[in-house]
Amino acid sequence: MKYDPQRRILAYDDTDLCDNVVWYGDFVKNSIVVCIFMMIDIITVMKVRKVRLFSVNNKNKNNESISEREKRFLKQTVSQGIVFMVELITWFSIDKITSNKVIIFLLSGYAFTLVHVLDG
């Protein structure tokens, strides 16, 4: 990796080996990990819902709050996954689409930082 002053980002050299490392080592690997995390979270919500339905005989007010918690958790999981996938796509493709330095900065370096700050 080296600093590319023209694009103002850290970038790999423009070789076939580096292209393979970037594509398979970064983009594909991170995309798969994000999809796995989203599937695990969705399965968790489904299992919690199944346990809650088994306890429906104990009609109490906690069932409604669990349902709201499930909705918030699912929304958070899906939104984090979508935002991270958008960041990955912009990080790896924006310099091929445009040469505008401001757009490249906002949709690559700034998006990368923003995703990791918002995720916490």
From TrEMBL:
Coiled coil stretches, renumbered: none
Keywords: Membrane, Transmembrane, Transmembrane helix
Pfam family of the protein (one): 7TM_GPCR_Srx
Keyword Lyase: no
Stretches assigned to the 7TM GPCR serpentine receptor class x (Srx) domain: 2-120
InterPro entries in the cross-refs: 7TM_GPCR_serpentine_rcpt_Srx (IPR019430)
Keyword Oxidoreductase found: no
Residue ranges crossing the lipid bilayer per the database entry: 27-46
Protein name per Swiss-Prot or TrEMBL: 7TM GPCR serpentine receptor class x (Srx) domain-containing protein
Organism for this UniProt entry: Caenorhabditis nigoni
